[in-house]
Amino acid sequence: MMPLVSDKSIAPSLENKPAEEPKKLKACCACPDTKRVRDACIMENGEEKCGHLIEAHKECMRKMGFNI
């Protein structure tokens, strides 16, 4: 007599298990160094004088996977 359920269907399979996704980083927490410098420059000098720092922060965000 053949069993109704095979041993393979009972045991958890590692092959069918989805890979755990790494915790997603929130935009507010990404690139704190460039963000801090950018924000300080904007507060002290105004946005129009901090374009290079704004672009550096955007580039860092892109490298972290954000679509900016």
Automatic annotation (TrEMBL):
<keyword id="KW-0007">Acetylation</keyword>
<dbReference type="Pfam" id="PF05051">
    <property type="entry name" value="COX17"/>
</dbReference>
<feature type="binding site">
    <location>
        <position position="29"/>
    </location>
    <ligand>
        <name>Cu cation</name>
    </ligand>
</feature>
<keyword id="KW-0496">Mitochondrion</keyword>
<dbReference type="InterPro" id="IPR009069">
    <property type="entry name" value="Cys_alpha_HP_mot_SF"/>
</dbReference>
<dbReference type="InterPro" id="IPR007745">
    <property type="entry name" value="Cyt_c_oxidase_Cu-chaperone"/>
</dbReference>
<feature type="region of interest" description="Disordered">
    <location>
        <begin position="1"/>
        <end position="23"/>
    </location>
</feature>
<comment type="similarity">
    <text>Belongs to the COX17 family.</text>
</comment>
<keyword id="KW-0143">Chaperone</keyword>
<keyword id="KW-1015">Disulfide bond</keyword>
<dbReference type="GO" id="GO:0016531">
    <property type="term" value="F:copper chaperone activity"/>
</dbReference>
<keyword id="KW-0479">Metal-binding</keyword>
<comment type="subunit">
    <text>Interacts with COA1. Interacts with the chaperone CHCHD4; this is important for correct folding and the formation of disulfide bonds that stabilize the structure.</text>
</comment>
<protein>
    <recommendedName>
        <fullName>Cytochrome c oxidase copper chaperone</fullName>
    </recommendedName>
</protein>
<dbReference type="GO" id="GO:0005507">
    <property type="term" value="F:copper ion binding"/>
</dbReference>
<keyword id="KW-0186">Copper</keyword>
<dbReference type="GO" id="GO:0033617">
    <property type="term" value="P:mitochondrial respiratory chain complex IV assembly"/>
</dbReference>
<dbReference type="GO" id="GO:0005758">
    <property type="term" value="C:mitochondrial intermembrane space"/>
</dbReference>
<comment type="function">
    <text>Copper metallochaperone essential for the assembly of the mitochondrial respiratory chain complex IV (CIV), also known as cytochrome c oxidase. Binds two copper ions and delivers them to the metallochaperone SCO1 which transports the copper ions to the Cu(A) site on the cytochrome c oxidase subunit II (MT-CO2/COX2).</text>
</comment>
<feature type="binding site">
    <location>
        <position position="28"/>
    </location>
    <ligand>
        <name>Cu cation</name>
    </ligand>
</feature>
<keyword id="KW-0963">Cytoplasm</keyword>
